[in-house]
Amino acid sequence: MISIIFLGTGGGAPSKYRKLPAVFVRVEGVGILLDAGEGVQERLSEASISPMDIDVLAISHMHGDHVLGVTGLLETMGLLGRKKELVIIGPRTIQDFIESSSSGTFFKPQFDIRFQSSLETKEFSITPFPTCHTIESQGYIIRTRDKIKIDINKAKELGISDWNLFRKIKTGYHADISPSTVEYITYKIKGISIAYTGDTRYCSEVLQNVKGVNLLIHDSTFLDEETAAEFGHSTSRDAAKAALNASVGMLALIHISSRYHDTTPLLTEAKRIFPRTILPEDLSKLVFK
Ligand SMILES: [Zn+2]
Ligand SMILES: [Zn+2]
pLDDT digit string (tens) for 221-237? Predict the structure, then answer.
């Protein structure tokens, strides 16, 4: 199961309605924060998520609207007495930024921060992919692994009822049973995948990487701005084109410019191209099972 809370769905500058980019994802009990724009702490509090629930912080790029919430968030983790390690994934300069802003504010984290480029666990993976913005930037795919399930009726049919053996089969270790039997009594539940682009214009690098994901969370800064691509951003139509051409399950429009108070036109334009589109408000939630 993957649950997603859109903490901040605005972009560039915050508005009364939309704070800066931050998306909280919970997968198999692990808390992942995608970007941490200014105001992220207030949104976490409004969503009843403790900073201690964040195990992984994944930053898309170093523009202020995506990272200026990081220092304050780490300070609060320190104030709360955090001891648990925090994994940070991001562009090469994220470590310098955190170290210099921490030393500049006389803050010494009493917990370990581990910088890495991706994350693999038994249950899921977080994989970065390049996006097309005005500076080095990357999106992320979070993918849960396929699960092997036992068809109990078929197993019974063959006289197999050993739960210890079922457990071994599920973990892929089944030396004492023939592959054809395993194939007969099992079925696969496909993993869930979501992709977050951060800031990007419409580009093939993104398309190739997000192919077939269940949910694509895509930059949709502008409605119909000819200069969107020039500034490394997408229109809602670009986002819908990406969703369509990458055959994704659902599209969520994010990074909405503060100039749009009424976002209906952005959603309408996108839905003309890709009907399974949503434009989430701050603090709205989605669950994929
Ligand atoms: Zn941005
Ligand atoms: Zn940016």
Answer: 999 888 888 899 999 99
